[in-house]
Amino acid sequence: MHKKSLIYIFFFTLIISNGLLADESYDQKIQPEFNFIEATKETKISSGKKLAVVSANNYATKGAQEILSIGGNAADAAVTLQLILGLVEPQSSGLGGGSFALYFNNKNKTVTNFDGRERAPKKILKNHFLDKDNKPQKFFDAAIGGKSVGVPGTIKTLHKIHNKFGKLDWKQLFEPAIKLASEGFIPPPRLIQSLKKEKHLWKINQDNSFFKKIIENPSQKIRNIQYEKTLRELSKDYNEFYNGKIANNMVQAVKNSNINPGLLEKSDFLAYDTKDGNALCTELKDKILCGPKLPSSGGILLSQALIIYENYNFDSTISHKRKLLDILAFVYNERAIFLGDPEFDFVNTEKLIQKDYLLKKFDLFQENFVKKIDFPEKFHSTTHFSIHDNEGNVISMTSSIENGFGSRLFVDGFFLNNQLTDFSFKIKRKNKILKNIPEGGKRPLSSMSPILIFDKNYNFLFSIGSPGGTAIIAYVFKNIVDILYLNIDPIHSVNSGNYLKKGEKIYVEKNKFKTKEFDVIKRSNEKILQMPLTSGLGIIIKKNDLLFGIEDSRRDGNVFAK
Questions:
Q1: Helix (H), strand (E), coil (C) string for 117-168
Q2: Is pLDDT at 249 greater than 60 in this prediction?
Q3: 465 and 398 in contact (C-beta within 8 Å)?
Q4: Residue 432, burial from CB neighbour count under 10 angstroms (0-12, 13-18, 19+)
Q5: Closest by alpha carbon to 287, among 126, 140, 129, 481?
Q6: 547 forms bridges with which residues in the sheet?
Q7: How far apart are CA 202 and CA 206, in angstroms?
Q8: Neighbouring-strand partners of residue 464
Q9: How confident is the model at residue 252 (pLDDT cuts 50, 70, 90)?
Q10: What angle do CA 160, 163, 169 make, to 5 degrees?
């Protein structure tokens, strides 16, 4: 029998044997459909006893597998995997962007948060994204060119993860990516599709022949010699990125951009450091959820959402979808008003996730509903991967250059981010200064949500994350609820339709639902919008001493387990 069929049978058997068939609150009408352009039409699943890797690309998964096979651990494999992702899906992540990662050390039962978020140049001002009339710029008027580029943090994050937990030599971890950049790779479908749809890349005054070759000959191997050279330099000394020729090249590209020249200087790179420390771990009723700390909003918002889901006394007539929509509307409002970089404005995280306080706030929110939320409605880009090694260590990592192709500035074989557009373009809301406004050296608020879930003894249960901009929170929340609370088959959960609510808008995944499914639960002030909510969920779940890796059908991802 085919391996995939066996896995499906196992899941179904597991569900029945444990009495875990979905309860009546689960909407049985949700069925996965695979008729949208971004999908690869097949969910990737695999099972094993000790090893599991899920990522957005087959080349990347294989690279991590290679490192694990020669004795590397999750930290080692993560370095290789991310370096390859930066090569084969440069539109989503890479050396020119930032990241958040959680690392679970199974021996010590500790979870470490690595904050590789980009920082704003020291010369940036609060009105950075206001036009000459003091009105917020349109997104793409601000995003393209040097103005939107923050100091990248991913390479320093990878080095810090490796330095703290890795086993193999740093240089050795670069070899698979260097070989692939040198010998060439077949462009993945999403890269090809993204380039064909892209409008802004060609406006930047630079040599775009590398990407034109991909469009002209999509079935042919493509080599990135610039990236190969960069990797060789960083394999010897990662600090070349912050205090060397590579840093100089990035500064010049930002300053000399023919569209929106930026403010980054060499001193901004020299001042950069990845922060590491304890993750934000929240005790739920019978589980522990660990997520990243601010400036990622993921840890706080998912803690809030699950505490409300577990404890709030909803009207018995309210449907499951309605509950999730109301919870999401609340946490997105929290994000817009109360969250930012804690180095610049104190955020009382402990209070925000305190149960009694939170439930009272949720009550008030429902009574005094906020109609409009001031942050961009972006639902794409970014990447997520998870790795479980044979020692039981786990890494959950989300990385991004923000919008697809970032700032569109291509330097030394990689794209520079446009992450500064994650700041609030508006300075005030109702005459109150917002927390997430541009300031020198500040980190913009992020929705990246690499999550690890444990039992009360910190035994690993579940790793999850997704790309998707601000929609990441909704994607991860829905799937955690499905799997942990409703006991829905994880494969079905990942492929079922996405939906979320911000302000008065309900966003429903196109081609996944019939409009009437939400018409019956919408309120008179709400508007339903259909759009491609393209998640890219990567999950590793442990069940009965077996590891299951699951990768979203909406992306080009791949899974390895052994």
A1: CCECCCCCCCCCCECCCCCECCHHHHHCCHHHCCECCHHHHHHHHHHHHCCC
A2: yes
A3: yes
A4: exposed
A5: 481
A6: 48, 542
A7: 8
A8: 451, 539
A9: very high
A10: 125
- In the DSSP assignment, the letter for residue 271 is T
C-alpha pair distances (Å), 249 with each of 41, 262, 268, 453: 40, 13, 14, 41
Span 35-59, pLDDT tens digits: 233 434 567 899 999 999 999 999 9
Q: Is 97 helix (H, G, I), strand (E, B) or coil?
A: coil
The rounded distance, in Å, linking the Cα atoms of 538 and 558 is: 9
What does the pLDDT read at residue 481?
A: 97
Residue with tokens 């993750």: 279
User: Exposed/middle/buried for 261, CB within 10 Å: 0-12, 13-18, 19+?
Assistant: middle
SS3 assignment, position 65: helix
Give the three-class secondary structure for 462: strand
* 514 contact partners, CB below 8 Å, separation of at least 6: none
Contact 185, 221 (CB under 8 A): yes
Tell me the HSE value of 401 on the side-chain side, using a 13 A CA sphere.
26
> Tokens 């990407």 identify what position?
211
**What are the b/e assignments for 91-120, b being 16+ CB within 10 Å?**
bbbbbbbbbbbbbbbbeeeebbbbbbbbbb
Strands 383-388 and 460-465: unpaired
pLDDT at 27: 24
Q: Residue 541: which of 391, 396, 382, 399 has the closest Cα?
A: 396
CB-neighbour burial class of residue 364 (10 A; exposed 0-12, middle 13-18, buried 19+): exposed
Q: Provide the strand spans (E) within 390-458.
A: 394-400, 410-411, 414-415, 428-429, 432-433, 451-454
d(CA 67, CA 83): 13
Q: What is the pTM of this model?
A: 0.91
Q: What is the pLDDT of residue 531?
A: 87
Tokens of 302: 């998912």
Cα-based angle 29, 495, 315 (whole degrees, multiple of 5): 50
Q: Which two tokens stand for residue 562?
A: 């052994």
Where are the alpha helices (H) located in 200-339, listed in sequence order?
209-216, 225-236, 240-243, 245-255, 266-270, 298-311, 320-338
Confidence check: pLDDT of 293 > 90: yes
399-410 pLDDT tens trace: 999 999 999 999
Distances (CA, A) of 193 to 190, 214, 335: 5, 10, 32
- Cα separations (Å) of 96 from 99, 120, 297, 400? 10, 14, 21, 9
Number of neighbours of residue 217 by Cβ within 10 angstroms:
11
* DSSP character at residue 185: B
pLDDT band at 15; cut points 50, 70, 90 = very low
Q: With beta carbons less than 8 A apart as the criterion, state whether 538 and 551 touch.
A: yes
Q: Identify whether the C-beta of residue 250 lies closer than 8 Å to the C-beta of residue 204.
A: no
Token pair 């509950």 is at which residue? 323
Average pLDDT over residues 379-384: 74
Which of 282-291, 305-314, 364-373 is least confident?
364-373
pLDDT of residue 23: 27
